[in-house]
Each structure stands twice: as structure tokens, then as C-alpha cells.
Amino acid sequence: MSTYHQPVLLKESISGLDIRQGGTYVDVTYGGGGHARVILERLQGGRLIAFDQDADALANRIDDERLVLIHHNFKYLKNFLQYHQALPVDGILADLGVSSHQFDEVDRGFSIRSQETLDMRMNRNQQLSAREVLNEYDEEQMTALFRNYGELPQARAISRALVQKREQQKLTTFGQVQEATQHLAQRGKENKFYARLMQALRIEINGELEALKAFLQQSALVLRPGGRLVVISYHSLEDRLVKNFIRAGNFKGEIEEDFYGNPSVPFEAVNRKPIMPSDA
User: Which of 21, 29, 135, 187: disulfide with 44, CB 3.0–4.6 Å?
Assistant: First the structure.
């Protein structure tokens, strides 16, 4: 199990949860169970409700009667917690993005190292995959996603190059994407360029930012007063949404006031700056 996914910031994130021995906790990104296992070790009694939409994660289920593992996207957080009579909860952990397992499994098509068929679906039961985006989206749609989700200044040129390439052959592998766009990658920074391109596709295919927004809004409703929300984010798009919501209770980051002029915010930041991982 340790080879499925090695959790980043494990010690720091578990510490941030401030676990109460008999509490109820939620791990919305179960994956290989790395965080979940440590949470269960810290509990005496209590409950852990875990979510993962990737069927591969279900094979890592920890044999513990205190664990409920839900095979669904975490955007349905509140509904499932109500169903399992688990409200309110004492802490929620989210480790966003792609697991090392998803990168390493070549048939999933997440990695720039893979020459397998592009897929990039976290939930393989859904219809939309990388192949549909690359071959069916028009130039305007692709430009918008590369600009908004990849923050790529060459978004228009990338889209045009891909459209021209698919007129010759259907785009099914990363190698074809690379061949079409390599002239647009800055020399010496090719990996960063393609990582952003693939990130943009992945976010679009899995609806990641909309799911994150739904999750954050629900987390404010399901946590008990004094409960903890811990989020591990990997890029600026996720980071901005999380920081703004914790700071202001909305995604613009603008603090709103109630009728009496008091700040209307659901959270109080425990740490003022993000905690960064060590080299280890």
C-alpha cells in the first residue's frame, strides 16, 4: 500500500487536523489510504468517512469498522454525511490533484512520460476524456481552457496547432500533442510547458475547480464550531480558491459584512501563510 501513493505533508496535515480521539473526521481524497491510516491510528473510537471517485482507490480499503469509504466525488460531501448520520464533523482533509498512482499507471494517460492513449478521467465511468476534448472542442473552447486552467500565454497558438494536427490524424496520445506544440515550448522549460498543458486538460475533463468550490462551500456547513479544514494544494488555481474562501468565505477574497458591520466569514485561519513541504 505504501507504493500506491506516498502522502506529501503527512505530518503537517495530520497535525493541522488537531485530532480528537473520539471525533468524526473526513478524508475526501482517500487514494492509497496514507492519510486515512494515520487518522485512524490517532482515533480512539470515533469515525472516518472517506471519499474517492477513482475505482482504483477502492482496492486500498483499510479493514477497520470505523471507516466508511464512499465511491463518489467529494462535491457530494454534505449529502453523504447526512446519509451516514455523521454531522457535524470535527475535521476535513483534502489532498487535491493527481496521485502518484494515477501518474504512474500509464493506461490512465495522466503523465507526459506516457505514450499510451490519453484518458485523464479520475472517474472512468464518465464519458468525457482527453480524446473528446482534443478532437471535438473547437479552437475557442480549447483556447479558453488552456488560458484559464493552464495559465498558458500561448493558449491561442496551442489550440490552433492542435486543430491543424487533428485535421491530419485523430489525437489520441501525448506524443501527438507534443509533436503539434513542441515549437511553442520555451527551450529548457519544456516539461513545465507540457505539465501546464496537461493540467488544463485534466481540470476541464474532471471539473476539478467547480468540484473544489462546491466542496469548500459545504465544508463550512458540515464542520462543528472549532473544527479544522486542512487542504493540500498544488497549483495557483486551487491555492487561490482555498485561500480566498478561508479568508473571506467567498472565492473573490472580498470580506463581506453583516448588518452590524461585522465580518461575515465562516473560518478563522490557523496559519497565516501556507505550510510548504520540506525537501524530504
Answer: 21
For residues 89-105, average pLDDT: 74
Task: Enumerate the H helices of 125-168 as residue ranges.
Answer: 130-136, 139-149, 155-168
C-alpha cell at 268: 478563522
Count of C-beta atoms within a 10 Å radius of residue 31: 23
Task: Evaluate whether 222 touches 77 at the Cβ level (below 8 Å).
Answer: yes
Question: What pTM, to 2 d.p., does this model score?
Answer: 0.90
Is pLDDT above 90 for 19? yes
- The torsion defined by the Cα of 216, 231, 195 and 192, in degrees rounded to 10, comes to 120
Angle at 7 between CA 209 and CA 17, to 5 degrees: 75
Are the CB atoms for 48 and 78 separated by under 8 Å?
no
C-alpha Rg value of the chain to the nearest Å: 20
Q: CATH for 106-206?
A: 1.10.150.170
What gap in Å lies between CA 250 and CA 263, rounded to an integer? Answer: 12
Domain spans, the chain? 10-95+209-248, 106-206
Assess if CATH 3.90.190.20 describes domain 10-95+209-248.
no
CA distance 59 to 62: 9
Per the DSSP assignment, residues forming a β-bridge with 50 are 27, 69
Grid coordinates representing 88? 457535524
Contacts of 136 (CB under 8 A, 6+ apart): none
* CA-based torsion, 175, 177, 182, 183: positive or negative: positive
What pLDDT was estimated at residue 8?
A: 83
The reported pLDDT for the residue numbered 1 is 44
What's the pLDDT at 128?
94
